[in-house]
Amino acid sequence: MFVGLKGFRLSDMHRIEATFQRLKSEGHMAFMPFVTCGDPDLNTTLSVIRELGKQGVDLIELGFPYSDPIADGPVIQASYTRALGGGLRVEDIFTALETLAAEDLPPLLAMVSFAIIFRVGPEAFVARARRAGLSGLIVPDLPGDESTEFAEVVQRNGMDLIQLVAPTTPAQRLRGILANCSGFVYCVSTTGTTGVRDGIPRELSGQLTGLRSETELPLAVGFGISRPEHVDDLRGLADGVIVGSGLVRILGAIATGDATPQTAVAEIGRLASGMLESAHKSQARS
């Protein structure tokens, strides 16, 4: 059985691990919304983070815009394009996040391309991310079974490296991926890119059951999760859900003039509240 990076002790528990353990003791799933940094601007991003914190979400995933998205669908790709069109830089994101240091917020995680990390320098990027208040990194284009060195850098800085597992991940690669993973396992619900979908693939249940036999790390499902009924379908199978495109689309309405930053943030808060309520129902399946 694989439990993630070697060397972790309960006394060293990171915020992500502590969050999942608390939720498990309460019989709840974790709800983690995704927000694109800088769409339409960083002040709005900070307002969204604060609103999500006020709603009581369990973790927040922050997308670092990149010109060549790895697995992002059209909604998130468009948000990245808008953010980069405004001249957004990585250091701008870190500086903005530092302004949240004194606020009571859930763990913040970055979804970031390794191309960005490599350009800054792995050691420098991770240290800067930690100073900015991030608790974990999700790096979709870093091969999970080849990430030992980078995982050690992340661990030394007191953060978690969350690894992605897809339905197409070969069994022989799974061992290497889980060995370099901490915090939780990001379970991609289906092949393809992110985006809103009608339902949860039938084969996902078997995938999650199989992963349970390989790791004690929490399992959080992303890609295509957008409605409370999707959360209900995963109850008793997953430890958390990640919602992205459904929230990012709301911010896109600012660019078209169909919403103001204030109304968009309020709508995100309402959607997050409903998803959170569903995630925090009893984990027992009906």
CATH superfamily: Aldolase class I
Strand order of the largest sheet: 1-2-3-4-5-6-7-8
The helix count comes to 12
Average pLDDT score: 88
User: From the 3D coordinates, which CATH architecture would you assign?
Assistant: Alpha-Beta Barrel
Ends distance: 29 Å
Q: How would you sum up the global shape?
A: globular
Q: Could you say what the CATH topology is called?
A: TIM Barrel
The computed structural class is alpha/beta
What is the total tally of β strands? 8
* Percent of residues in helices: 40-55%
Number of domains: 1
Query: Which residue ranges are poorly predicted, with pLDDT under 50 across at least 5 consecutive positions?
Result: 1-12, 192-198
Give, in order, the helices and strands.
HEHEHHEHHEHEHEHEHEHH
Main sheet: strands, sense, barrel: 8 strands, parallel, barrel
Q: Strand content of the residues, in percent?
A: 5-15%
What would you report as the Rg, rounded to the nearest angstrom?
Answer: 17 Å
Q: At the first level of CATH, what is the class?
A: Alpha Beta
Structure, explained:
With 286 residues, this protein is α/β, with parallel strands linked by helices. It has one domain (10-279): Aldolase class I (TIM Barrel, Alpha-Beta Barrel). The chain is built from 12 helices and 8 strands. It has helices at 15-26, 42-55, 74-85, 90-98, 114-120, 122-131, 148-156, 171-179, 204-212, 228-234, 245-255, 261-279; strands spanning 30-36, 60-63, 108-111, 134-138, 160-165, 185-188, 219-222, 240-243. The chain has an 8-stranded parallel beta barrel with strand order 1-2-3-4-5-6-7-8, surrounded by 9 helices. Helix 3 crosses helix 11, helix 5 packs across helix 6 and helix 10 packs parallel to helix 12.
